[in-house]
Fold:
Amino acid sequence: MIALRLTSVTVLAACMLYSMTCLGADAPKDMMLVPTGEFTLGSDGKDRDEDRHERPVHQARTGAFHIDINEVTATQYAEFLNATGKTQNVAGHAYLGEDRYAVIERVDERWRPRKGKDKWAMVNVTWYGAGAFAEWAGKRLPTEAEWEKAARGTDARRFPWGNEPDESRIRFGQDKVGATGTRPKGASPYGCLDMAGNAWEWTSSSFRPYPYDPDDGREDAGSSDRKVARGGSWTGEPHIFTTTYRFRPFPSFAHRYLGFRCAKSAE
Structure:
């Protein structure tokens, strides 16, 4: 009986170690590991405006990658601007949108979060601005496929937490917008937070029809085509908080509901 008990403990420990590895124990700080493999991408749609762009449902594959647990915050973005001293890239594409939507401000030649918004998602940032931050941080924007896999896992769930809508798990509505990472019950299968609600999130991908093909030009970093943003936002409607809904703003677009998180290929 003692031997059996020791064997059970050993098996349990092995399972825990496997789970920790898969869920990000070996990932860089504040990131989670998403293993290589196939998953279900897209949905059958629900006969609403853009849902047809989620079709057809198909199998996609990603390599292993790390992804931020939380959306990039105003504090982190201010640090980037102060370090680089730039608010546009060499081609003249602005990083920030209109000041009236800003969660950061410049005071005495230094950027800082506006009062009470240090932990808010960095919104009002263009695709160019999101990509520039990611490069500065030694990361990149996730592809559309990577984002969806991190949000829904391999069981094709409609929301990060499962298949039933639950507004208590997300930041939704003007009275609920705020700091990142405060809805742990809304975590994705890989432990990522706010992948539904709070802020839309830029991906690296240009908007193209499915099936998803990373080699068809949609991952061309020089393309000025519409990009894909994911996750819904605090200003949205409940039906767009799914793991499959595809918002498609132009890369120069910025607004108070559009932010991002970063990814990094696993070595």
